[in-house]
Design goal:
alpha+beta; 7 helices; rod-shaped; 21% strand; 201 residues
Length: 201
């Protein structure tokens, strides 16, 4: 800052300028006494603040870019999960549903929206549901963390044959981090195999 104001007046006005957001404000004076030391300290402080502000702005923009990228990936994964015929369900560490795709909801006659947030015991009920809950618990205990079994799903007027695969998720320290359940509908395949077997007979 240049003008008729002396160093003391400039040092009084400087912090007001900085508080108002003007980090380019500098006290322009030459002095070798205590005022000169104060002027140098003030100018160094505003330089440091300006650099920190620029770094924060760059970090914020970088975070925004990463957030946008993550959102795009999430939308892409959701689109894929909704399009596939394989049922996919994810659980958190205490066994609550965090996601369920359309195919899984159809297989178990569930509402996607109403199922999220509920415990797996609430969602998977009955004899077939008990099998699935049991599989999840076993997967959480096994070292490999993955287990599969065929599950018969009885429905009014029909019977689904599902291959249920459960994979336990592990954190960096090996701690349990939830599970992913994948259901493949084998009904038509098994029906075709039976028909082929009857033809051979």
């Amino acid at each position: 800052r240049r003008g008729s104001a002396g160093p003391s007046e400039q040092l009084v006005e400087g912090p007001r300028e900085v508080a108002a957001g003007n980090l380019n404000d500098k006290v322009e004076t030459r002095a070798d006494d205590e005022i000169g030391v104060l002027v140098d300290s003030f100018n160094r402080m505003t330089d440091d603040l300006r650099v920190s502000k620029r770094q924060l702005e760059e970090a914020y923009l970088d975070l925004q870019d990463k957030h946008t990228e993550l959102e795009e990936r999430r939308r892409y994964i959701e689109t894929v999960l909704e399009a596939i015929t394989t049922g996919v369900v994810s659980l958190d560490t205490v066994g609550r549903l965090t996601t369920i795709n359309r195919a899984a909801a159809r297989m178990f006659d569930l509402s996607e929206e109403a199922s999220v947030g509920r415990s797996m015991e609430e969602v998977f009920r009955g004899p077939d549901g008990y099998q699935i809950v049991s599989l999840v618990r076993r997967a959480g205990r096994t070292e490999a963390g993955a287990i599969a079994a065929e599950v018969a799903r009885e429905r009014p007027g029909s019977r689904l044959s599902l291959l249920a695969s459960v994979t336990a998720l592990r954190g960096p320290e090996g701690e349990y981090g939830g599970a992913v359940l994948v259901f493949d509908d084998l009904t038509e395949l098994i029906k075709a195999q039976r028909q082929a077997a009857w033809r051979e007979v």
